[in-house]
UniProtKB/TrEMBL annotation:
Its EC number is 1.20.4.1. One of its GO terms (molecular function) is arsenate reductase (glutaredoxin) activity. Pfam families: ArsC. Keywords: Oxidoreductase. The keyword Oxidoreductase applies. Belongs to the ArsC family. The keyword Oxidoreductase applies. It comes from the Bacteria. It comes from Nocardioides simplex. Transmembrane segments: none annotated. This is Arsenate reductase.
Length: 119
């Protein structure tokens, strides 16, 4: 089963959900703005993505939220994670995780196909 972190107001999220429906795969929805991920959950997702927090940050939304982002270095990693957990709008979307652990930021057809195939 695939888990998808989404914001229903996001067109990329709606597209990803439509692709999952079209593929006929089972999935669960997590509205991550209503149920923000914890720092531990973000760590887990980033580990599976092979990315750093700043790689999945929505910097334009930081400006809209009036949030100052830390510098992009390992010493600030904890600050990034705490900020993203406190302000989930900063997290890129949608994030999909297949039952085998394959995780993608599903903003393009190739990423969506990868997670669907892994499930």
């Amino acid at each position: 089963m695939i888990e998808i972190w989404l914001n229903p107001a996001c067109s990329k999220c709606r597209t990803a959900q439509s692709e999952l429906d079209a593929a006929g795969v089972d999935y669960t929805v997590r509205r991550y703005l209503d149920e923000p991920p914890t720092v531990a959950e973000l760590e887990d997702v980033l580990g599976r993505l092979g990315l750093e927090p700043w790689d999945i940050a929505r910097t334009a939304d930081a400006r809209k939220l009036g949030v100052t982002l830390p510098t992009k270095d390992a010493g600030e990693r904890g600050a990034w994670l705490a900020l993203m957990a406190a302000h989930p709008k900063l997290i890129q979307r949608p994030i999909l995780t297949a039952s085998d652990g394959t995780t993608v930021v599903g903003r393009d057809p190739a990423s969506l196909a990868q997670v669907i195939a892994a499930d």
